[in-house]
Amino acid sequence: MAEKQLIIEVMASVTKRTSDYFKNEFGIITTENNSSGGELDALVLLDMTAVIIMGGKINLLVVFSFEEPLIDAIYHEMTDELGIKDDEVEKYRKAAAGDVINTVLGHSTIDLLNLDKNGISITPPRILNDVKIIQTMKYKMFYAQSLQTPLGGMTIGLVGSQKLFNEIFCITG
Amino acid sequence: MADLEALNVMVVDDSPIIIRKLTALLNTLGYVVVKTAENGVEAVETYEQYKPDVVTMDVTMPEMDGIEATQAIMSKFPEAKIVMVTSHGQETMVLNALKAGAKGYILKPFHQQKVYETIQKVCNRKIELQFF
User: Fold this and answer.
1) Is residue B129 part of a domain?
2) Considering the entire predicted model, what is its pTM?
3) B15 in a domain, yes or no?
4) Residue A157 maps to which CATH number?
5) CB-based contact A25 B61, cutoff 8 Å
6) Across the interface, do B16 and A122 touch by the CB < 8 Å criterion?
């Protein structure tokens, strides 16, 4: 499969699975805003960010970055009946961000099985606590899709090799 | 439940939210969660100490994943009953887990009936009609 198609397919699946998950689990409706990519200087992160690497032939870092009101709303939906103590709130807010990306990418691997018949591995989620910008690295490029909800926005980012992204954004040289 | 003694369960997951939710669900179903662990290394150590009747094991975890932890537990305790927990629904993952010695699997998000039936079946217990 062409690499251009791979990027498009991964982002389409992740975006749709995110929208479906928000709607089905939390009753949150999403709308797609602008997408951007290519030789960006940096991917600017929002208030809470979780990342996972999708392995195998896909080999992309997937970034979910949430505005504070949105991740707060999700946190409350996930933990309302759990009796979280005040000193545990931050731990569970981070866990909520991790659970969202983990669940969504788990669902996406089902859509993307045709891209890697050996199965697509995903790493455990990591929370980028103090990182606010992912700088462009050599041979790494970004593709980002913004989603808006009535409770706040989020960005889905894909970070991969320049080779993968050259095709999709028609970058030459 | 027909079986008088409640089963002791160990819950292994790197998400504290999943641990709390699954623990609450298992308690509702009449099981006793004796211990929880947040990664595979902790799971192996804790299993040796508590020898629970059944373990629910997340697949994707830091330090040691659920498949490796299952292999490690099964190599020492071949009678262990381990149920994998995954959101993947992937044949490859499930197959690897079963090869490692897992006796069954449940998918996230959890459905009470499925969790109940899987644990009862793995522990050779009667599955009674439930109204969840």
Assistant:
1) no
2) 0.87
3) yes
4) 3.40.1550.10
5) no
6) no
pLDDT in tens, chain A (173 residues): 566 678 889 999 999 999 999 999 999 999 988 777 665 667 788 999 999 988 888 888 899 999 999 999 999 999 998 999 999 999 999 999 999 999 999 889 888 888 887 778 888 999 987 777 776 665 567 788 999 999 999 999 988 876 655 655 554 33
Residue A79 to residue B61, Cβ atoms within 8 A: no
Domain count, chain A: 1
- Domain containing B82 equals 8-122
DSSP sequence for B23-92: HHHHHHTT-EEEEEESSHHHHHHHHHHH--SEEEEESS-SSS-HHHHHHHHHHH-TT--EEEEES---HH
On whether residue B83 sits in a domain, the answer given is: yes
Rounded-to-integer distance, Cα B103 and Cα B112, Å = 18
- Structural domains of chain B, count: 1
In a domain, B128, yes or no: no
Domain ranges, residue A89:
3-169
CB pairs A-B closer than 8 Å: 52
User: Is B26 within 8 Å of B33 (Cβ atoms)?
Assistant: yes
**Which chain B residue has the Cα nearest residue A119?**
B92
Q: Tokens for B2?
A: 């027909």
Among the partner residues B17, B24, B88, nearest to A106 by beta-carbon distance:
B88
Q: Is the ipTM of this complex over 0.85?
A: no
- Among the partner-chain residues B20, B62, B92, the one whose CB lies closest to the CB of A119 is B92
- Among A103, A109, A124, beta carbon nearest to B62: A124
Cβ-defined contact of B60 to A109 (cutoff 8 Å):
no
Question: What's the CATH code of the domain at B26?
Answer: 3.40.50.2300
Asked if B14 and A124 come within 8 Å (Cβ–Cβ), the reply is yes
